[in-house]
Amino acid sequence: MSSATRSGSTRKVAVVGVALSDCGRVDEATPYTLHAQAARRALADSGLSRDAIDGIASAGLGTLAPVEVAEYLGLRPRWVDSTSVGGATWEVMAAHAADAIAAGHANAVLLVYGSTARADIKARRRTSNLSFGARGPLQFEVPYGHSLIAKYAMAARRHMHEYGTTLEQLASVAVQARTNAATNPDAMFRDPITVDEVLDGPMIADPFTKLHCCIRSDGGCAVLLVAEDYVADCASEPVWVLGAGEHVSHTTMSEWDDFTVSPAAVSGRLAFERAGVTPGEIDVAEIYDAFTYMTLVTLEDLGFCEKGEGGPFVEKGRLLRDGGLPTNTDGGGLSAQHPGMRGLFLLVEAVRQLRGQAGEGQVRRADGTLPALAVASGTGGWFCSSGTVVLGR
To answer: Which of 6, 89, 160, 368 has the maximum number of C-beta atoms within 10 A of its C-beta?
Structure first.
């Protein structure tokens, strides 16, 4: 199955290389090291030579990202992207890269990320921060002291008020993510948890206890996208970029029209329309899950259930690897890895599932065949941005 990313595109685009760097607890590496590990491994996965890469997309590292990353990797790209919109960055970059390749502006684009967020905290090279800054529009909210976590918590409370969503339903998202992580050797936390354990944990920002929140890890990953005419030279099975969409909604909470609707409502609709598929055809969903509420509301906004029905949808085990909609099959940011902007990990896992390379964590359809369609949807900031990519074999 293959298709162009946008109407009028001239070349189809495929993902031919994916890889993780060392992940979890990585105390001796630098972020540049993790970038290089992931890039080398993704290139090896593709079977192409480094000389094939003529585009790079990276964000979050260096003063002149991605210039510094490209130099470290020994690349001299003719196409670059440094779009930075939080966790959605990588899905947005994948959309931009696919458009560039389809139009002939690049042939092979490397998306690469690495972070030692956990190790830096442990070594006191950095500290936690209350806010992202106090300039521009943010100056009107920062004095009140609410953190990023608190903003998500406010949104979750609104959903609970509007639709009767329960703490138990939100907690079930974390429980299912941990169950999925159990068979992933790269997951940082694999021991099972229960709904009661989630509810009884230390409060972080009401209603979120600790296990409602993503973990903090080290790690990186890379994804290589190429034009269709490169596929024959690749060592791996291609996974085609079928459609993508992006959307930004707000930066200040006072400008967010509805706390129960995320920007995935727009990016998802665009991605599915451009791919020519419906949510009901999707076999695997990889969704940004910095907090349990993100998973629930994104599932609604992507169209997997009606608005307000996310609670009943997630509580019945649908997100498990053998559930009705296998979601965050590697354990997600709640259990596997979350070194900062996790969106690129979603693409890696989606590709592995479509290729049948997920090991014990492999999803299969009811007839025993491999999944054919996957969606990766990233969220940035505090539901400020969204990028959604539909992939297929």
So the answer is: 89
